[in-house]
Design goal:
The chain has 292 residues and is α/β, with parallel strands linked by helices. The protein has one domain (19-290): 3-Layer(aba) Sandwich (Alkaline Phosphatase, subunit A). The chain is 46% helix and 18% strand. Helix 11 (165-169) links the parallel strand 4 (159-164) and strand 5. It starts with a helix and ends with a strand.
């Protein structure tokens, strides 16, 4: 990374990173402190660290808004295999950078809690949605259970979230806008509603908005063919495209998986050694790019 950084004075950072997969290992706990640095949010320093490559990119591209999209089950190996099925995501990646990022958990709730708070599961203790209420009841001011959206709200920024109803309820009254989507057996329709409600939320011009899209994860559990996974990825990508088309030009997209693909055993039978290593090391994709 030192050689890249020495070139900042000569080249636009977007040009440097545009067609480059950094393969830089980081952790999902680094996302919240990185957003705090970009948006100048005052927060109690968590376990995660600021990713300077991202903050420098954000400054270079004059981004002032953050769109945080969590794509359930978007493991790093899976992302590499789905690039042709996700042209909108690739468009964002080609404008910025891709990281190989370590997930601190293999299930959704603790992983998302780590993304939002900057703490590891053994620190935030949020393993199930109900734990959010239990931990807050113990001490609602505990910084380990306070999300970056709440820290943003406390810093005078406008924060929003579009997520499953129970998750949204846990933040009701704590941030500017919460959009809860009732769970559904039709996950394609569910994700479509997530995208539609994100578009509604964007009309209020939030400084940071967090979104959770789930189709790949659901299809990983239900299906046995790569065609089904590609279909779900195409649906996810279409929803990302919808969100992208309704964001401001000064928006920074931070898109990440929460954990590698579930039901991994059946999928690993169809893959190679590198895929298995990425899966067992809990690597997910972290894609960062601007709309410019």
């Amino acid at each position: 990374m030192a050689d890249i950084k020495t070139e900042y004075g000569k080249y636009n950072v977007t040009q440097i990173f545009a067609h480059m997969n950094l393969n830089t290992e980081c952790s999902l706990v680094d996302i919240a402190p990185t957003i705090s640095e970009i948006l100048h949010i005052n927060m109690v320093k968590p376990h995660g660290h600021v990713l300077n490559q991202i903050t420098e990119y954000a400054r270079e591209n004059k981004t002032r808004k953050v769109i945080l999209i969590i794509v359930d089950s978007l493991g790093y190996a899976l992302y590499q295999r789905l690039t042709e099925s996700m042209p909108n995501l690739q468009k964002i990646a080609n404008s910025g950078m891709v990281f190989k990022c370590k997930s601190p958990a293999d299930h959704t709730t603790p992983a998302i809690a780590s993304i939002f708070t900057g703490y590891y599961p053994e620190e935030h203790h949020l393993y199930y949605t109900d734990d959010i209420y239990k931990e807050r009841a113990k001490d609602e001011y505990n910084p380990k259970i306070k999300t970056i959206m709440e820290w943003g709200h406390d810093s005078g920024l406008k924060s929003g979230i579009v997520i499953e109803s129970l998750g949204a309820e846990s933040l009701a009254g704590r941030i500017y806008g919460t959009f809860g989507i009732p769970d559904s057996d039709d996950i394609i329709e569910y994700d479509k509603k997530v995208a539609e409600n994100t578009v509604k939320a964007l009309k209020s011009n939030p400084d940071i908005i967090a979104v959770h899209i789930r189709a790949i994860d659901r299809f990983a559990h239900m299906s046995d063919t790569w065609d089904d996974i590609k279909y779900s990825a195409g649906s996810v990508d279409e929803n990302i495209g919808t969100i992208y088309s309704h964001t401001r030009d000064d928006s920074l997209f931070i898109i990440c998986g929460d954990h590698p693909i579930h039901s991994g055993k059946k999928w690993l039978e169809m893959t190679g050694k590198n895929d298995a290593e990425n899966y067992h090391n809990r690597y997910v994709a972290l894609i960062v790019g601007s709309k410019k």
